[in-house]
TrEMBL record:
<feature type="binding site">
    <location>
        <begin position="64"/>
        <end position="66"/>
    </location>
    <ligand>
        <name>substrate</name>
    </ligand>
</feature>
<keyword id="KW-0028">Amino-acid biosynthesis</keyword>
<feature type="binding site">
    <location>
        <begin position="261"/>
        <end position="262"/>
    </location>
    <ligand>
        <name>substrate</name>
    </ligand>
</feature>
<feature type="active site" description="Proton donor">
    <location>
        <position position="251"/>
    </location>
</feature>
<keyword id="KW-0413">Isomerase</keyword>
<dbReference type="InterPro" id="IPR042529">
    <property type="entry name" value="IF_2B-like_C"/>
</dbReference>
<feature type="site" description="Transition state stabilizer">
    <location>
        <position position="171"/>
    </location>
</feature>
<protein>
    <recommendedName>
        <fullName>Methylthioribose-1-phosphate isomerase</fullName>
        <ecNumber>5.3.1.23</ecNumber>
    </recommendedName>
</protein>
<dbReference type="InterPro" id="IPR000649">
    <property type="entry name" value="IF-2B-related"/>
</dbReference>
<feature type="binding site">
    <location>
        <position position="98"/>
    </location>
    <ligand>
        <name>substrate</name>
    </ligand>
</feature>
<dbReference type="InterPro" id="IPR037171">
    <property type="entry name" value="NagB/RpiA_transferase-like"/>
</dbReference>
<dbReference type="InterPro" id="IPR005251">
    <property type="entry name" value="IF-M1Pi"/>
</dbReference>
<comment type="pathway">
    <text>Amino-acid biosynthesis; L-methionine biosynthesis via salvage pathway; L-methionine from S-methyl-5-thio-alpha-D-ribose 1-phosphate: step 1/6.</text>
</comment>
<dbReference type="InterPro" id="IPR011559">
    <property type="entry name" value="Initiation_fac_2B_a/b/d"/>
</dbReference>
<comment type="similarity">
    <text>Belongs to the EIF-2B alpha/beta/delta subunits family. MtnA subfamily.</text>
</comment>
<dbReference type="InterPro" id="IPR027363">
    <property type="entry name" value="M1Pi_N"/>
</dbReference>
<dbReference type="GO" id="GO:0019509">
    <property type="term" value="P:L-methionine salvage from methylthioadenosine"/>
</dbReference>
Length: 366
C-alpha cells in the first residue's frame, strides 16, 4: 500500500487541486484524493495504491460527502481490478466502509456490475469496464450538479418570490463532495452568481466542523457573502428573522421521502417549520434509495467518542478522561418536515413517497 502525502499550502502556485483523480504511475494506477481532514490550512493529497488505503481515506473522512463517496467507491473497484486484487472482496469492503450514504453502495455496485459484465473477455477488459463506469459516474455527477443548481434556484425564487435570499446551510455540500459544484451549495452559488444571495449562513457543524473548515473555505474562494455560526446559534438567528431558507444535502433519501443528513439537520427542520421557513433538500437521484422504505430503516453511522471529547484531529481534551459520548454522524428528518427535495430530474414540493419515487424512476428512464 502506498499512502503518502504531497503537501501544498494555500496560495502556492497550484491553488485548485482536483478533489479526486485517477493517475497512471510507473508503479501502476493510483487514486489521488484531496485530503479534506487537512483543510482549510493545507491542501494535501493522499495517494491510494490499493483498496485498504481507499477504505482508510473514507473512514477518516479524508474523502467524504455522499456523491463523492459514490464516485470514490466506483474508482476503488476500478483500482482493485487494475491491480489484480480480489474485486468482489474489495467491492464489499468499500461498500461497507461507511453505512449511511447510499451513494457509496451505489457507486461500488455500478463499477462491480461493469466488471462482472466484461470479465468473460478477460480481466484486463473487465478492469477497463470498471474504470469506464467510474469515469461515467464522475461525469454524470458533475452534470447532475449543474442541473440541481438550476432547478434549486428556480424553486427558491418561486418559494421566496424573488429578491435576495438569506440562506442557512449545514455541513459541506459544495465542489468538495461532487464531480461538479455540489448539491445544496451549488444552489447557493447559483443564487450568488445571479446576484440573489444576500448572505450564506454557515453552520460550523460539530464535531468535525465540515461547515467551518470546508464550506467557509469554498464560500470564501467563490467570493460569496457568508457568516459562520455555531450550530446552537441557529435558533436565535431564526428568531431574529434572519433566515429565508435552509438548503442542505442528503446522504440517503428513503422511498417515503425521509432524509438522512449530517447530524443537526433534523433540529434545523424543526426550527424551520416553527418559523415558517422552507427546508429544502438538494441531492442527486443516486441518493434516493428505493429499497429503504422509511427513516427508521436508515442505518445511522455512530462514530468514535473522541471526536466529541477532544478538539478535532484528536487534539486537546475537551472533557474529563473516560467521558462517554453520543456521536451519531447523521440524523433523519421525516418527510413532513421537508418542504422540497430538488434533484437533477426536478423537484418534489410537497414531499411525498410517490413524488420521490417518480423522480427516481425518471432517472432510470422508466
Ligand atoms: O460525514 P460527512 O462529512 O461525509 O457528511 C456529509 C453530509 O452529511 C453532507 O451533507 C451530505 O453527504 C450531502 S453532500 C451532497
Amino acid at each position: 500500500m502506498a499512502d503518502h502525502y504531497a503537501r501544498r499550502r494555500a496560495g502556492d502556485e497550484q491553488t485548485r487541486l482536483p478533489v479526486l483523480r485517477w493517475e497512471e504511475s510507473a508503479d501502476g494506477p493510483l487514486l489521488v484524493l484531496l485530503d479534506q481532514t487537512r483543510l482549510p490550512g493545507e491542501e494535501a493529497e493522499t495517494v491510494c495504491a490499493d483498496v485498504p488505503a481507499v477504505v482508510a481515506a473514507i473512514r477518516s473522512l479524508a474523502v467524504r460527502g455522499a456523491p463523492l463517496l459514490g464516485i470514490t467507491g466506483a474508482y476503488g473497484v476500478a483500482l482493485a481490478a487494475a491491480r489484480g486484487a480480489d474485486v468482489e472482496a474489495a467491492a464489499s469492503r468499500l461498500a461497507q466502509a461507511r453505512p449511511t450514504a447510499v451513494n457509496l453502495r451505489y457507486g461500488t455496485e455500478l463499477a462491480l456490475d461493469a466488471y462482472r459484465s466484461a470479465v468473460a473477455g478477460g480481466v484486463e477488459q473487465a478492469a477497463g469496464a470498471a474504470l469506464a463506469a467510474a469515469r461515467d459516474l464522475h461525469r454524470e455527477d458533475a452534470a447532475a450538479s449543474a442541473r440541481m443548481a438550476g432547478h434549486g434556484l428556480e424553486l427558491l425564487d418561486e418559494l421566496l418570490s424573488g429578491g435576495e435570499h438569506r440562506i442557512l446551510t449545514h455541513c459541506n455540500t459544495g465542489a468538495l463532495v461532487s464531480g461538479g459544484e455540489g448539491t445544496a451549495f451549488a444552489v447557493a452559488l447559483a443564487a450568488h452568481r445571479a446576484g440573489r444571495l444576500r448572505r450564506l449562513w454557515v453552520d460550523e457543524t460539530r464535531p468535525l466542523l465540515q461547515g467551518a473548515r470546508l464550506t467557509a473555505w469554498e464560500a470564501a474562494r467563490s467570493g460569496m457573502p457568508y457568516t459562520l455560526l455555531t450550530d446552537n446559534a441557529a435558533g436565535s438567528l431564526f428568531a431574529a428573522g434572519e433566515v429565508d431558507a435552509i438548503l442542505i444535502g442528503a446522504d440517503r433519501i428513503a422511498a417515503n421521502g425521509a432524509v438522512a443528513n449530517k447530524v443537526g439537520s433534523y433540529p434545523l427542520a424543526v426550527l424551520a417549520r416553527y418559523h415558517h421557513v422552507p427546508f429544502i433538500v438538494v441531492a442527486p437521484t443516486t441518493t434516493i434509495d428505493p429499497v429503504t422504505p422509511d427513516g427508521p430503516a436508515i442505518e445511522v453511522e455512530q462514530r468514535a467518542a473522541d471526536e466529541v471529547t477532544r478538539l478535532p484531529g484528536g487534539g486537546r481534551p475537551l472533557a474529563p478522561g473516560g467521558t462517554t459520548a453520543y456521536n451519531p454522524a447523521f440524523d433523519v428528518t421525516p418527510p413532513e418536515l421537508v418542504t422540497a427535495i430538488v434533484t437533477e430530474e426536478g423537484a418534489v414540493c410537497p414531499v411525498t413517497g410517490d413524488g420521490v419515487m417518480g423522480l427516481w424512476r425518471r432517472s432510470q428512464g422508466s
